[in-house]
Give the backbone structure.
Amino acid sequence: MEPRNFDGDADRPRSAGAKQTGRVLVIGPYLRVRAGGADAQSESYVLRDADARLDEAAGLARAIDLVIADAIIAPISQIRPATYIGKGKVEEITGLIKSLEVDLVVMDCALAPIQQRNLEKEWNAKVLDRTGLILEIFGRRAKTKEGSLQVELAHLNYQRSRLVRSWTHLERQRGGFGFMGGPGETQIEADRRLIQERISKLEGELKKVQATRRLHRAGRQRVPYRVVALVGYTNAGKSTLFNRLTRADVQAADMLFATLDPTLRALNLPHGGKAMLSDTVGFISNLPTQLVAAFRATLEEVLEADVILHVRDISHEDAEAQQSDVDAVLRQLGINPDDSGRIIEVWNKIDRFDAEQRDELLNIAARRPEDHPAMLVSAVSGEGIDALLAAIEERLAAKRTTLDLSIDAADGAGISWLHRNAEVLAKELHDGRFDMTVRVDETKRDIVVSRFDAVPHLSA
Ligand SMILES: Nc1nc2c(ncn2[C@@H]2O[C@H](COP(=O)(O)OP(=O)(O)OP(=O)(O)O)[C@@H](O)[C@H]2O)c(=O)[nH]1
């Protein structure tokens, strides 16, 4: 066991308003991995050293205002079926739990239900595994009705699978000892039925909420807004960039998962065009597949986005591993992370580098293929934001047509239609007529051509 003094969090005053829900001991029961080995979790985990993994787990615990009494790494060489970690470690931790007076233990791994129960019994404390912790975080961060419903549904599905698995386990054990039935059986069945009823009810409610959402989206599609979506590892700076780009006062907190549900705002492009910018849930490593599935609908804006900004905290020591985690989640959602026509990499937090390091970063960025640029920005200082907006505009323009037309200056209705439905790139008054250059979606091209006799724009 390697105790680590975890930045004195237990004694530090928490930020005003933060609710203290309990003292927690965070345990990283990490398998000793030989080079090239895998610890049965996600591959990228092998890239991370145990300290960084433990820090991340502690960060997740802090995200729901838990007071971290201590965080320790418990290296293991094999997973024990009964308690995940070995007997000696279980006992050592029992002592630690008593001396630290904690009532919750976070195990940064996926525990089988029986392991969770055995540990809770041994330690006389509640035990949360990684999925349980993530579900707690999602639950607290859900802002919309849809988000809350999805979290509750994911939670119930998680519980149901645990009941089913533990039930199978008990049955096998009983069979082995020659017992039939026994106490607990009816309770489990009753629990399962209750959970199933609640799941069906929630699914019904969710369908209704999603239908409303689809209506809203259909409404938005009638205006020529394209969607730009922000994705990125949790804490990469998405909300801060979202605010910077839209100048909206949306909550940005130094917390994981400050945003769960997509938030949409208008994004003003340099030449007067508009797009919708959507902020999404922060991705994290090892996001259980069942959760990705549960949040697919919440991530619909990302699926449909014309341009996806992949925001990266380039100052983070795990920046590379975080990138592969985000790419993996994108793939799970059916998005090709190498689609350079759609994805722009945004290297955020460059204000954290000195001049020399920035030059080095610029060099690395300059060596990237031309169609795969990286935009260097600081969402906090605003540096690089104009260039980023120009890159977004250019990427969106690639999917649009530019047309020239001439319109009577007295045709107020026609001019206002053009302003609503097209991006007006140039407008000059000549002899009572406006000569205009406009950019429109492919879907609007034919209307503009027939209504205004527009012709394809000939660039100089
Ligand atoms: N120095 C520096 N800090 C930044 C920058 N952008 C964001 N931050 C900080 O990084 C932390 C996380 O920022 P958020 O915008 O909440 O991150 P997020 O990606 O939305 O996080 P989730 O909601 O958890 O996914 C906050 O403390 C921000 O102030 C930046 O450009 N420079």
Residues 20 and 65 are 6 Å apart (CA to CA). Residues 232, 234-240, 252-254, 256-259, 282, 348-349, 351-352, 378-380 surround guanosine-5'-triphosphate (CB under 6 Å).
